[in-house]
Design brief:
- By secondary structure, the protein is mainly β.
- The protein is 5% helix and 29% strand.
- It has one domain.
- A 3-stranded antiparallel β-sheet has the order 1-2-3, with no helix packed on it.
- The longest helix has 6 residues.
Length: 120
């Protein structure tokens, strides 16, 4: 697409975040676009062909965004942060090592010790 000055404009795709609102239940939540999610102990990682255990937080949980919407992280924390798979060194303060050594954790909590809402 060209603008009035003849220069090409790059089309930008805004990232879509799976923002969550709580339903007053620590095991269930709903994204702002109406997708219901629930707390799970482990999530199946298709590329690996096996389950990875989710970190257990008191006030938030890790979930898989199965909505299929483009530009979204597949794994999220209900605080609004992405969830990532880390090795046992990264989560030593959050949980005991798992059999495989990996754990799905909240990215912000792993980096800063707090969730996006400031809770720990």
């Amino acid at each position: 697409m060209k603008s009035g000055n003849g220069k090409n404009k790059k089309s930008k795709i805004a990232p879509s975040f799976s923002v969550v609102r709580s339903l007053n239940d620590l095991g269930e939540a709903e994204t702002l676009d109406g997708y219901k999610v629930g707390r799970e102990d482990k999530i199946f990682i298709l590329k690996w062909g096996r389950f990875v255990i989710c970190a257990s937080y008191d006030n938030h949980f890790i979930y898989e965004d199965k909505s299929g919407k483009p530009n979204r992280w597949a794994h999220m924390c209900t605080c609004g942060s992405a969830a990532v798979i880390v090795g046992s060194n990264a989560y030593a303060g959050d949980a005991s090592p798992t059999d495989t050594g990996e754990l799905l954790v909240c990215l912000l909590h792993a980096q800063y010790g707090k969730h996006a809402d400031g809770s720990s």
